Amino acid sequence: GLRIHEYLYFQVLSPGDIRYIFTATLAKDFGGVFNTRYDQIHLVPADPPEACGELNNGVFIQDQIALVERGGCSFLSKTRVIQEHGGRAVIIADNAYDNDSFYIEMIQDSTRRTADIPALFLLGRDGYMIRRSLEQHGLPWAIISIPVNVTSIPTYEMMQPPWTFW
């Protein structure tokens, strides 16, 4: 059936200045699903950010989750690069840093390739703010919890990014 914006949530635990619950959408027709909940796993920004080829920091992505920027190649190509580096999932942030409300549907490219790891789309503003915080603190990665079940969290306790409308 047709899936329209299946949301998945994750929480940044560190650095503390972006300790928010973020909303992402799953790729429409490729990638895996989360069979495990990761209470503390590294969210590692890919170097180079677009992750269209060999990564300079691929060793840090092994068994972690990669933060990738949209552009340069297909969503599936990015997912496969992260999978080949041993990543458990990829979060692809929009390259429009002012995008704080428009989710893009990530679909299969024209190749017959597949990917087994989960691929998520993140709003550009959220991706930018996470990367900016890491740069300001001189940190190589964030620590996140993913996926987060938001149905058990009272609305008034949900720490949502102040720049996003919910």
UniProtKB/TrEMBL annotation:
<keyword id="KW-0378">Hydrolase</keyword>
<protein>
    <recommendedName>
        <fullName>Protease-associated domain-containing protein 1</fullName>
    </recommendedName>
</protein>
<dbReference type="GO" id="GO:0006508">
    <property type="term" value="P:proteolysis"/>
</dbReference>
<dbReference type="Pfam" id="PF02225">
    <property type="entry name" value="PA"/>
</dbReference>
<dbReference type="GO" id="GO:0005576">
    <property type="term" value="C:extracellular region"/>
</dbReference>
<dbReference type="GO" id="GO:0008233">
    <property type="term" value="F:peptidase activity"/>
</dbReference>
<keyword id="KW-0645">Protease</keyword>
<comment type="function">
    <text>Plays a role in the modulation of physical activity and adiposity.</text>
</comment>
<keyword id="KW-0964">Secreted</keyword>
<keyword id="KW-0732">Signal</keyword>
<feature type="domain" description="PA">
    <location>
        <begin position="43"/>
        <end position="127"/>
    </location>
</feature>
<dbReference type="InterPro" id="IPR003137">
    <property type="entry name" value="PA_domain"/>
</dbReference>
<dbReference type="InterPro" id="IPR037323">
    <property type="entry name" value="PRADC1-like_PA"/>
</dbReference>
<keyword id="KW-0325">Glycoprotein</keyword>
<dbReference type="InterPro" id="IPR046450">
    <property type="entry name" value="PA_dom_sf"/>
</dbReference>
